[in-house]
Amino acid sequence: MNAMSTRVDWVAASESLHSNGYAVVADVLDPAQCDELRALYDAPVGFRKTVVMERYRFGRGEYKYFDYPLPPLVQRIRTAMYPHLADVANAWMQALSLPDRFPGTHAELLERCHVAGQDKATVLLLRYGAGGFNTLHQDLYGELYFPIQLVLFLDRPGVDHEGGEFVLIEQMPRAQSKAIVLRPERGSMLLFTTNFRPVKGTRGYYRAAMRHGVSTVHKGQRHTLGVIFHDAHS
């Protein structure tokens, strides 16, 4: 079993995902692994696409999509975390009486993506400087998407940067939306829903849609690794 996966209390993480639509897990990466991933951002090769957020009105900052083959550490993270999340995802589909079911291994999910014409890597590194932010969005990339994704935090909040909190917005039925603001420490993993989660109401479960973004960075630099488990069309 992958060492990073064993650092996660999957019972507690799954319960938090079911109850809240997200879970924060501390100390998934050690400082050396965080530094290793941060250093990849300036590597001259290994990426298929760079996005400057201002050009698309996504916010202010920059991110890079990895190309295949993924760096070994990134590949291990994606492969090791997926099976635990597939169990949660399948429970969500069952609760909502949806027909979708997700396979037990990540390789099988990618096979389905490729059959659907989605064969571009979606794992990305993000860098924000002072004034940087990310508008609220969802990372769907195609008709076939996995309903849970994760972010790994590579910097020390309050030391390497100020601001840059992670923001989740949950759409409440017949009510105003709820904001959730998180400030995970370096090495932490945030698991959260890609699109919606089941919430139990008086007449059974309903879908609660969620979007995510990043508040303004006031100074310093903020780096994260975003792991989306499905591939993209482009």
Q: What is the second-level CATH architecture?
A: Sandwich
Structural class: alpha+beta
* Strand runs, count: 15
Distance between the termini: 32 Å
Share in β-strands: 25-35%
Helix fraction? 25-40%
3D architecture notes:
The protein is of the alpha+beta class and 234 residues long. It has one domain: Sandwich (Jelly Rolls), CATH 2.60.120. The chain is 27% helix and 33% strand. It is built from six helices and 15 strands. The chain has helices spanning 3-6, 10-20, 31-40, 53-56, 72-95, 106-115, and strands at residues 22-25, 47-52, 59-60, 62-66, 124-128, 133-137, 148-153, 161-163, 166-170, 178-182, 189-193, 196-201, 204-214, 217-220, 222-227. Strands 1-11-7-15-5-4-2 form a seven-stranded antiparallel β-sheet. Strand 9 (166-170) and strand 10 form a beta hairpin. The longest helix is centred in the middle third of the chain and has 24 residues, at 72-95. The model has no long low-confidence stretch (mean pLDDT 95).
